Amino acid sequence: MLLVWPIAIPLFTAILCLLAFRSFEAQRVLNLAGSLALLAASVVLVARVLDEGPIAAQMGSWPAPFGITLVADILSAAMVLITGIIAVACAIYGLAEVSRTDERSGHHALTQALLGGVCGAFVTGDIFNMYVWFEVMLIASFGLLVVSGGKAALDGAVKYVGLNLIATLAFLAGVGLLYGASGTLNMADLHLTLQGRHDETAVYAAAALLMFAFGTKAAMFPAFFWLPAAYHTPSVTTSALFSALLTKVGVYALIRVFTLVFDTTEPAIQNTLLYGAALTMVVGVLGAAAQMHVRRILSFHIISQIGYMILGLAIYTPLGLVGAIFYLFHHIIVKANLFLIAGVIRKSTGSEDLYVIGGLWKRKPWLGVLFLIPALSLAGIPPLSGFWAKLLIIIASLEEERYFIAFVAVAVGLLTVFSMIKIWMEAFWKAHPAGDDAAATPAPALLYIPIISLAAMTVFIGLYAAPFVDAALESADQVLNPQAYIAAVTAASEAAAEALDLGPQEAIPTLVEPIEAPTVPEEQLNGLEAEGEAE
Amino acid sequence: MNSVILSTATRFLTPLILIISIFVLLRGHNEPGGGFIGGLLGAIAFALIEKARGVAEARRAMRFDPLSIAGFGLACCLFGGLWGAAVYGDFLRGVWPLYDEYGLPVGSILLFDIGVYLAVVGTVCAILFSLEDAGHDVAGRED
C-alpha cells in the first residue's frame, strides 16, 4: 500500500477539490493539506527504501508481467520526495499568488492531478502504465496552461500540446514495437527478455522512438522549442511547478528505460544521447543569452541544464549516473526557487521585462541575496549545490576521456553565469527607469516562505553534500545493476500469485492461453518435399 | 442552430443513446465495451441536446455541473480501488460481494467502470460546453 499513496493522495485531493468547486477557501486548504500529506507519504517511502532496498507491489494482486507493477528504488523514491517538497512550496506560494480566475477554472484540482501523474510516472514499473501517467500529466498541464486564459497562454499551450502529443504518439508506437518484439511490458521482465537482443531492428526502432518521446518531454535538442513558448505564460506558481517537474519526468524516464530496458553502451544510442546532450546544453544557454524576459531566460536555462543530466546518463559510468541523479535533485530545487523569485520580482516592479525594471537592490536587498543563492548555484559556483553537480558530471566525462564534452560543459557553466549576471544587473543593480520607488511595491510575506526554505536547502546540500552524494552513489548502483530491482518485482509477483491462489508455477499458464504456431498439414509438406526431389 | 427536425429527433434519440451507452458500459464486463466507450456515447447524448437546443438546455438536462459529475466519477474509481485494499489489502483487487450467493458480477470492478463512465461524460461535456461558451464570447466581441 505504501507505493499506492503517492498516487492516491494527489488524485483523492483532486477529486475533493473538484467536488468543493464552489469554495475557493476549501480548495486552497485541500491543496495545501494534500501536498503536505504527499510529502509525509514520500518521506516514509524514502525511509523504507533506504532501509530495505527496492520495494514493489502488484496492483490488484495480478502477478507480473500481466498485472501493473509499482516499484520504488532510491531514484524513484527520491523523485517522489522532491515532488512532495515542490508541491508544498508551490501550494504555499499559490496561496498569495494564484488569481481568482485560475482558481475558478480549477487550478487546485488540476495541480493535484498533475502531481498524481508525476508520482505515477516515478513509481510505475510497467512501461505502458508509464504512458498512461504521461497522458494524465499532459492533460492536467494543458489545463493549467489555459486556465489563466489570454492569447499568449493559448499560443504557448497549442505549441506545448502539439509537440507533446507527437511525442506521446511516438512513445505509444515504441511501446507497441517493444511488446511485439518481447511479449511483455513489465520493465523488469523487459530487462530479462531483451538480454542479448539489443541489435535487433525492432528493439533499435523502439529505442529510437522512446528516445525521441522522452527527449521531447525533457526538452532535449532539437525538440525543445515547446518549452520557452509555454513556460512564461501561466501563473508563477504553475510555471514553477512545471519547471521543477515536467521536464524532469522525461529525464527520469530516459534514465530508467535506457538503463533497465535498452543497452546504452550500444554506440548508436550512446552517441545520440551524448551529442544530443551537448547540443541541448549549448542551444539552451545561447537561447537564454538572447532573452530579456526573466522567466523566458530561466526557461531556456532549463534546457541547458537538462543537457547536463542527459550527459551524465550518456557517459554511462557509475560516476556519470551519480552526477545525473544528483543534478536532477539539485536542479529541481534551484529552478523552482528561481521561478518563485521571478514572481516576487514581478510583484515588486510590476514587470518581468528586464528593459523596464530595476532598482531592486536599493529597495529590497534581501531579495537580492535570496536571488543570488539559487542563481549562483545554477551557474555552479562553490560551495552551493550546483557546484558539486557540475563537478561530478565534468569529472565523469574527463575520466572517460571525453575532453571536448567536458570543455562544452565548463563553457556552458560560464555562459550561465553571464545570464544570471544579466538578470542581476538589470533587475537589481541598475536604477529603475521610473525611479527606484517603482520597485518598492510590497510583496506578501507568504511568498518568501517557500523561497527561503528552498534557498536554505540549496545551501545545505552544498555545504553538507556527502550524504546526498552517498545516496546518489547507492542509487546509481541500483540503476546500473538492477538485480535488486528485479528481485523486488519477482517477490511481489510471487506474493500476488499466492494471494490469488494460483501458485507460482501455474500463475502464468492460466492467465494466457499459449498460442500454437500454425502447423502445415502433412500431405502438403510431403508434396513440397516431392517437388524438391523432382528438381 | 434552430432546426425543428433535429430538435424533435433529439427527444427520441437522447434516451435511446443513453440506454445504449449504459448497455455498452455493462457489456464491457467481459466483452468489448466498458466505461470509456460508454461514457463517450453518453456524452454524445448531451452533445446532441447542446447542438439542437443550446448549452443552457444541455446543462439543465445534466442537472449537475459536468465537472462535479467528473469528480464524482473519479471518486467512484478511487473507492473501487480502495475497496479491494480494505478487504484484501491489495489496491484495485476485485471484490465480488454478490457473486457467490446470487451469481451477480457486481462489485468493485463495476464501481470502477461506472466511475470511468461518469468521469468521461463529465469531462467531455465540460470541455464541449466551455468551448461553446467561449465561442459565443468571441462572437459577441466581434459584433
List keywords for this structure.
heterodimer; A: 535 residues; mainly alpha; two-stranded antiparallel ribbon; 23 helices; 2 strands; B: 143 residues; 6 helices; elongated
Describe this structure in words.
The complex is a heterodimer of chains A (535) and B (143). Chain A has 23 helices and 2 strands. Chain A has 535 residues and is mainly alpha-helical. Chain A has a two-stranded antiparallel ribbon with strand order 1-2. Chain A is globular and about 75 Å long. In chain A, 75% of the residues lie in helices and 1% in strands. Chain B has 143 residues and is mainly α. Chain B has one domain (4-142). In chain B, 79% of the residues lie in helices and 0% in strands. Chain B is built from 6 helices and no strands. The mean pLDDT of chain B is 86. Chain A binds chain B through residues 1, 4, 8, 11-12, 14-15, 18-19, 21, 57-61, 106, 109, 496, 499, and chain B through 65, 67-68, 70-72, 74-75, 78, 81-82, 84-85, 88-94.
Write the layout of secondary structure elements.
The complex is a heterodimer of chains A (535) and B (143).
Chain A: H1 5-19, H2 24-52, E1 55-58, E2 69-72, H3 74-97, H4 100-104, H5 107-123, H6 127-147, H7 151-182, H8 187-193, H9 201-217, H10 226-230, H11 236-260, H12 267-289, H13 294-315, H14 318-349, H15 360-363, H16 365-379, H17 385-399, H18 403-429, H19 448-463, H20 465-480, H21 483-499, H22 507-511, H23 522-534
Helix pairs in contact in A: 1-2, 1-5, 2-3, 2-5, 3-5, 3-11, 3-14, 3-19, 5-6, 5-11, 6-7, 7-9, 9-11, 11-13, 11-14, 12-13, 12-18, 13-14, 13-17, 13-18, 14-16, 14-17, 14-19, 14-20, 16-18, 16-19, 17-18, 17-19
Chain B: H1 4-27, H2 35-53, H3 55-62, H4 66-88, H5 99-102, H6 108-142
Helix pairs in contact in B: 1-2, 2-3, 2-6, 4-6
